[in-house]
Amino acid sequence: MAEPTNTPIPPSTPVPASTPRSSSPAPPTPSLTSNAATTTVSLPSAPPGAAPRRPIVLHIGDPIKYNPATYAEFSQAFEVVRPSAEERERSEFIRALKERRWGDFSAIFRPFWGTGGEMGQWDAELIGLLPDSVKVFASAGAGFDWADTKLLGEKGIIYCNSGLAAAEAVADFAVAMIISTFRHLPWCMTAATFTPPSPHAADLSAAEAFQTCHARATAVSHNPRGHVLGLIGFGNIGQQIAAKMGNPAFGMRIAYHDMVRKPAEIETALHAQYHPTLTGLLQTADCVVLCTPASPDGQPLITASALAAFRRGARFVNVARGSLVDEDALADALEAGVLSAAALDVHAREPRVNPRLVRMATRLDSPDGPPPPGAGRVMLTCHNAGGTVETHAGFEELSMRNIMGVLKGEGPVTPVNLEFLRVDGKA
């Protein structure tokens, strides 16, 4: 398949206007070919008689790959400086900021999720070294737990994520994971491809693995239709999941919890019921999907106490952030039968996956006696939910559009920290 050029956000299941997951004001869902004006930031003017200044953009990570036409416009408007991989290592990056090696740059541009993060956490140490000229930080990806967006805002820097570009891909992946929790797909797939490690060490033969799953999976599998799907986070991704799973094809009943209740027209269009508390949602849902990029206090949302509020036999899906889940508490809930199945695309200690959950994903039922707790009922993937060509093209495009919007005074497209923003020292 040819790689797209100047790819806008891919067409998706029609949903109403939505907001990036934050407590910032909710702009309409934009097209990547136009900018929604939400705030205006003025740059200092050049001295009288001097040539107009081109703002400097610090490009961290790999070169542009998918959107050369937009990049041509971008690089004509701004002086783009791209530090080497060595300069992006934290110690050298800090040294460069102290030396003002890249001058008074106006924006930070990270168009790819896999590169540009070599300096690690954007905390007070890094943010405090940024020049006062920085007005916007635009990055690939939906999550932003690696950047202190509150501190960025207090320094006058708008942080923009790219969750809008990933929404379609993540929602599609979530659909597959939801179905997996109802139909126990890991068990079915592992049993069909099972190969005993040796003739003498195996508890099961290949035939026994196949026949045991065939006989037993039916008793614990269900159709999603009519069950309550509880969404933690109801931004772009949550609303697309609701549109896909609540439509006549799957017929699930939609419930959600978010920091801010969505407008009535969104709830009506998606037949979504709002729960003001997380506990209330967990007590109602047959399957819970975590699809918010951050928690309000930076702490895990799915803890032992939260898991105790789940309906017995409920299911859990995480397409958000691994750090939002206490994975050992999740394993405890699966072993105790509080949860019947789970699916995780993200993990707390990536690229390492919790070994207890790995055992649950790969261990099969014995043909004699009850199955091991949680055996074969956990789907684990490698942070793949947003990983499509269309998503990465959208990351590039949206990051450039955010920077162009802010630095040209038209406003950001997908800001997430406007509530913390200070301009010229004022709220």
UniProtKB/TrEMBL annotation:
Per the record, the domain of life is Eukaryota
UniProt biased composition (Low complexity): 15-24, 31-40
* Residue spans crossing the bilayer: none
Q: Name one GO cellular component term.
A: cytosol
Q: Where is the D-isomer specific 2-hydroxyacid dehydrogenase NAD-binding domain?
A: 214-360
The similarity comment for this entry is: Belongs to the D-isomer specific 2-hydroxyacid dehydrogenase family.
Q: What is this protein called?
A: D-isomer specific 2-hydroxyacid dehydrogenase NAD-binding domain-containing protein
